[in-house]
């Protein structure tokens, strides 16, 4: 029998008392269930389907897999290990791989007249880009009804039908990926952008844990949206119900102070509603009197316990933490909870970092004096968002970009945005979203009205349905103006120069409203836009010292002094924030300030903090 584990809190999953003492890989999710789970990580059978013949030959019904591979991992590593290669990836334009393992069906509570038997749910923390799954030779569909799941940055789940389950089960997974420039790739190479410089090796496949757990037939899904109305001490929760048995239900909410459990229950709410078969999104509102606000100086968190209760009193429960905060962009500044807040940011590219390495990176970035981390067009382990909530680090997240602009790439971009929003909008630390970066996937933004309209429509969608975030349309330059109205909450610029005098000159032109010639391309496209400090001006990339293509100081002491001087010039002007590039070295970009493995700093602590505390 394989070990099962019980969830206890939102950042850690610990073993029940009578389980294997082997090291545990906590589940990569932020919203928890009070249940047990069976972790399916470990050695899987593996084979590289070089000719892409597995589907035609029905490998899901039985196949002699030639190798073994450790899940989670990457296709690139698994192919290299299987073929004993040490010279990089084992695929160029397309890759197809298969994984398989057996598992014993975990125990679960038996059914009774009062309590229906739980069903089993299979969840992949992240896997892709295209994933197909079979149980005992029968293809599964995700809860969203997909035979093929597209995407590689967020989790997805399957409900396992009772007729398919056996005491010992065979799980088969086919994963396919290509260099297709129409799919969200972030900074992974593609047919358009080849590896080298700022473009990285592909890192795809079974990149996060997979697990099976018993869940109630009628339940709340593991996703919670939170919008704070701090002026009225209100919290709006967006919940998703999953129903197999139509009927009358009650959503019961309880709020506790996570940092002070002795305070007892602070607020409750009950919301009766009829629920039909399928899935439904429901917004409910709870008043939280005398609420403490979340901020970098005081990252105060509350605990939400949400239950779905049926007519017989059966309860299905999820738990999450949240914080109350309000972010605005008006005039020259970003305001957090009504206070002007300068963004001392740093660009973070996780690359192939492990969860433990990312934890060390976040502690190090806070030591540098940063209050903001810009997670650069990548998906990260969702527990890192929890860590940022607890540390009080603001996050700027971005949709991993496709690499060319057309209708298909825009459809893929929007689907990726929706997948990320469903799983990230719980966190008070996330305050900014970028839709695109430097025209990647929107290279025709300056001359294609259709591209500009898609980005404009998406910006308006975010304003209406996700008002808890600030949104940047295209970070760095080529922001969209319609009738003189910017379709971005901030005017951002990427500025790179190693010369201090030129730096001063560029910043002076920028704050004076010169939108042409300061960055690589004009800052605004579309209708004329006249900058008069009506939106915050953010230098969202600068530095790059140590990266060969940017120049600049190589010596650590010289780099430290140059950063200090450049930072002083930023703060001497009406600028709302800046993002130094970057946190760690990654592949050919050797401009990091933090050791990628140990998290040690190569510069003094507090170097990027612009205001003494």
TrEMBL record:
Keyword Hydrolase assigned: yes
Gene3D superfamilies given in the database record: Galactose-binding domain-like, Glycosidases, Immunoglobulins
Q: Where's the Glycoside hydrolase family 2 catalytic domain? A: 351-451
Domain Glycoside hydrolase family 2 immunoglobulin-like beta-sandwich as annotated: residue spans: 231-325
Cross-referenced Pfam families: Glyco_hydro_2, Glyco_hydro_2_C
The protein's organism comes out as: Fibrella forsythiae
> Coiled coil: which residue ranges?
none
- Please state which protein family the record places this protein in: Belongs to the glycosyl hydrolase 2 family.
Q: Which UniProt keywords apply?
A: Glycosidase, Hydrolase
Molecular function via GO: hydrolase activity
Chain residue ranges for the region called Disordered: 1-25
Q: Where is the composition biased (Polar residues)?
A: 1-19
This chain belongs to the protein called Glycoside hydrolase family 2
Highest taxon above the source species: Bacteria
């Amino acid at each position: 029998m394989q070990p099962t584990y019980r969830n206890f809190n939102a950042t850690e999953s610990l073993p029940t008392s009578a389980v294997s003492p082997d090291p545990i890989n906590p589940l990569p999710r932020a919203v928890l269930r009070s249940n047990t789970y069976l972790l399916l990580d470990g050695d899987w059978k593996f084979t590289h389907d070089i000719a892409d013949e597995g589907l035609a030959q029905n490998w899901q019904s039985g196949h002699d897999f030639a190798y073994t591979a450790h899940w989670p991992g990457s296709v690139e590593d698994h192919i290299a290990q299987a073929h004993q290669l040490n010279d990089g990836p084992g695929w160029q334009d397309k890759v197809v791989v298969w994984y398989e393992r057996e598992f014993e069906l975990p125990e679960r509570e038996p059914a009774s007249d009062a309590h229906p038997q739980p069903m089993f749910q299979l969840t992949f923390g992240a896997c892709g880009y295209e994933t197909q799954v079979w149980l005992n030779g029968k293809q599964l569909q995700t809860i969203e009804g997909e035979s093929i799941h597209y995407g590689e940055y967020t989790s997805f789940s399957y409900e396992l039908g009772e007729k398919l389950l056996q005491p010992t089960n065979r799980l088969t997974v086919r994963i396919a990926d290509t260099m297709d420039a129409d799919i969200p790739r972030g900074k992974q190479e593609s047919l358009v952008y080849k590896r080298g410089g700022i473009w990285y090796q592909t890192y795809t496949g079974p990149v996060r844990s997979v697990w099976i757990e018993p869940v109630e037939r009628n339940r709340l899904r593991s996703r919670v949206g939170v919008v704070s109305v701090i002026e009225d001490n209100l919290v709006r929760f967006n919940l998703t119900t999953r129903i197999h048995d139509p009927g009358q239900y009650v959503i019961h909410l309880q709020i506790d102070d996570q940092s002070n459990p002795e305070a007892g229950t602070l607020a409750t709410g009950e919301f009766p509603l009829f629920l039909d078969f399928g899935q439904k999104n429901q917004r409910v509102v709870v008043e939280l009197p005398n609420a403490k606000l979340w901020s970098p100086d005081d990252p105060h968190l509350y605990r939400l316990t949400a239950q779905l209760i049926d007519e017989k009193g059966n309860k299905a429960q999820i738990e999450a933490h949240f914080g109350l905060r309000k972010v605005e962009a008006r005039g020259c500044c970003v305001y957090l909870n009504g206070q002007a807040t300068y963004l001392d940011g740093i660009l973070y590219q996780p690359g192939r970092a492990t969860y433990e390495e990312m934890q060390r990176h976040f502690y190090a970035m806070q030591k540098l004096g940063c209050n903001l981390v810009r997670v650069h067009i990548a998906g990260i382990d969702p527990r890192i968002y929890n860590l940022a909530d607890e540390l009080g680090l603001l996050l700027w997240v971005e949709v991993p970009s496709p690499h060319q602009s057309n209708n298909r790439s825009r459809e893929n971009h929007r689907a990726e945005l929706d997948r990320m929003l469903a799983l990230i909008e719980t966190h008070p630390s996330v305050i900014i979203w970028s839709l695109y970066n430097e025209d990647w996937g929107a290279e025709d933004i300056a001359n294609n009205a259709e591209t500009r309209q898609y980005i404009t429509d998406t910006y308006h969608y975010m304003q209406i349905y996700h008002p808890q975030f600030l949104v940047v349309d295209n970070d760095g330059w080529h922001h969209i103006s319609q009738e003189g109205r910017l379709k971005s909450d901030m005017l951002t610029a990427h500025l790179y120069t190693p010369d201090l005098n030129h730096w001063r000159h560029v910043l002076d032109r920028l704050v004076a409203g010169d939108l042409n010639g300061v960055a690589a391309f004009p800052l605004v496209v579309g209708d004329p836009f006249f900058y008069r400090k009506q939106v915050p001006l953010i230098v969202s990339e600068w530095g790059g010292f140590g990266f060969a293509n940017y120049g600049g100081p190589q010596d650590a002491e010289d780099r430290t002094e140059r950063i200090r001087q450049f930072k002083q010039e930023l703060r001497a002007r009406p600028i709302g924030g800046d993002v130094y590039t970057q946190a760690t070295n990654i592949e050919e970009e050797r401009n990091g300030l933090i050791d990628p493995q140990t998290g040690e700093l190569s510069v003094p602590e507090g170097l990027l903090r612009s205001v003494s505390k």
